[in-house]
């Protein structure tokens, strides 16, 4: 995990749950601001912070408004959010997360979608074979992008693969 560790506070699936990040020296850091965007800029390899491991349902996200930006479960109308299962699968069919140090500007109208950004880091759907852990920082290569419009906002999804996946060299 490139020298990063995580510390859980409170019970999972609770409003109080938080996952804090530490650097190699044990200092608390922000996964949003302190983890570099690139794992290797010369090879276009990006860092990805895993928020939702494959086959899990809890809609987790980097808390951009909280101090140190821990990962917490998303809340809508006062209730914790979970994604629905799509038969025959359970939960997300990929590892889901974000590229650190990115942000979809809510004041910028995208020329392709005609909508402004969603005010969050750029999302990543990692399609490799490994089931990652929440808070894991992995190195990914980009395979493509998908623009979604969610409640009138542009929400870009980067489709990527972990560079350590046995099939990574076969996908471009």
UniProtKB/TrEMBL annotation:
Keyword Oxidoreductase (UniProt): no
Alphabetical UniProt keywords: Hydrolase, Magnesium, Metal-binding
Cofactor(s) recorded in Swiss-Prot or TrEMBL: Mg(2+)
Keyword RNA-binding on entry: no
EC number, UniProt record: 3.6.1.1
One annotated GO biological process: phosphate-containing compound metabolic process
GO cellular component: cytoplasm
Class of this enzyme: hydrolase
Molecular function per GO: inorganic diphosphate phosphatase activity; magnesium ion binding
Any Pfam family hit: Pyrophosphatase
Membership in a protein family: Belongs to the PPase family.
UniProt protein name: inorganic diphosphatase
């Amino acid at each position: 995990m490139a020298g990063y560790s995580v510390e859980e506070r409170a019970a999972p699936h609770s409003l109080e749950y938080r996952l804090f990040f530490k650097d190699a020296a044990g200092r608390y850091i922000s996964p949003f601001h302190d983890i570099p965007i690139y794992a290797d800029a010369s090879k276009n390899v990006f860092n990805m912070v895993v928020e939702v491991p494959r086959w899990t349902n809890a809609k987790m996200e980097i808390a951009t408004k909280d101090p140190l930006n821990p990962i917490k479960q998303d809340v809508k109308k006062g209730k914790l959010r979970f994604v629905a299962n799509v038969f025959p699968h359970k939960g997300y069919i990929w590892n889901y997360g974000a590229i650190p140090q990115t942000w979809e500007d809510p004041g910028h109208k995208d020329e392709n979608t005609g909508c402004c950004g969603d005010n969050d880091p750029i999302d990543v759907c990692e399609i490799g074979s490994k089931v990652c852990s929440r808070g894991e920082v992995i190195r990914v290569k980009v395979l493509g992008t998908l623009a979604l419009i969610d409640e009138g906002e542009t929400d870009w999804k980067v489709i990527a693969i972990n560079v350590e996946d046995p099939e990574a060299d076969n996908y471009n």
